[in-house]
Amino acid sequence: MNPKPKIHVDFNSAIDELGRLPLSTVGAQEDIARLGLTLKEGMEIEVDDGDNLSADGIVRFSDSENIWVAEIDWKKLIYKDEE
Q1: pTM for the full model?
Q2: What is the pLDDT along the chain (83 residues), one digit of tens a residue?
Q3: Which helix (H) or strand (E) element contains residue 79?
Q4: Given the DSSP bridges, would you call strands 6-8 and 53-62 parallel, antiparallel or unpaired?
Q5: Which residues contact 22 (CB under 8 A, 6 or more apart)?
Q6: CA of 79: how far to CAs of 20, 46, 48, 58, in Å?
């Protein structure tokens, strides 16, 4: 089983009432390009801030923002310094 691709996000940049994270930031776009990913609805990914936080995410398309976003369970954030 292949590991989930890891994409950089800013956990402070939630864009809607669902708390989804944009995958349109420079860091996310660099990771997507480097990994050669084509984002698809329902794709499983790992989102990571490059510092202390990560979470499992599901790729969704935000029609209202017209961008790809990551849907995460905010109750299941992983704090790396506590592992």
Answers
A1: 0.89
A2: 568 999 999 998 877 778 899 999 999 999 999 999 999 999 999 999 999 999 999 999 999 889 999 999 999 999 987 55
A3: strand 78-79
A4: unpaired
A5: 9, 13, 15, 28, 62, 65, 67, 68, 69
A6: 18, 13, 10, 19
